[in-house]
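Before the break, one more example. Copy the sequence into your notebook; we will annotate it together after we see the structure.
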Amino acid sequence: MPSYKLTYFNGRGRGENARLMFAAAGVPYEDNRIEFKDWPQMKASTPLGSMPILEVDGKQKLVESKAINRYMAREFGFYGKDNMESTRIDIVTEIIDDMWSKLVEANFEKDEAKKEELFTKIFTETAPKKLEFLEQFLGENDGGKSYFVGTSITLADIDFIHVMSYYLHPGKNDNGLDKYPKLKALLQRASANEKIAAWIAERPVTPF
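Here is what the structure looks like once it is written out:
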């Protein structure tokens, strides 16, 4: 089995899907966490001045979070059985990642009034349209009683777990999935996976 080293900030962010896949697959890796204060001095030494970076066998340095996620999903069996399943997984992850980008933008907004405005727009306009689609999309697979694609966890479900940890904003949007019973049940079902649940319980508590 290859050796893996994942380099990313000491937070969930764009590195957490990879960590969740390592956990779900039961594959050991080096979780190299970079503190924000140390990033400026090491930035120039990275391939693109960005993270995450996944090193494979100490040779290949993979960059760009989506490329890393799909590489790992293919390696660990989280990318479907055929091209149609892989494409349906891509559809879900693209929708979810768009939500996540807007949540990150709102979270890092320094003007509190603007931040509140951005979150309100996400919760009342942006997210509902996407979640309605995903609720229907999920229902197309075994009536929504299984996973987004197929009968086992894929990258689509892992990405959903990750982004919902931001979307179900404590004190602001705790009930954000109440109108989408299939999605709410999926989140509970996928998060209850023994290996994923163990990682979520033991991972470092970070602000993002």
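Strands lie at 4-9, 30-34, 53-56, 60-63. Helices lie at 16-25, 39-43, 65-76, 83-107, 112-139, 155-167, 181-191, 194-202. Try to locate both features in your own notes.
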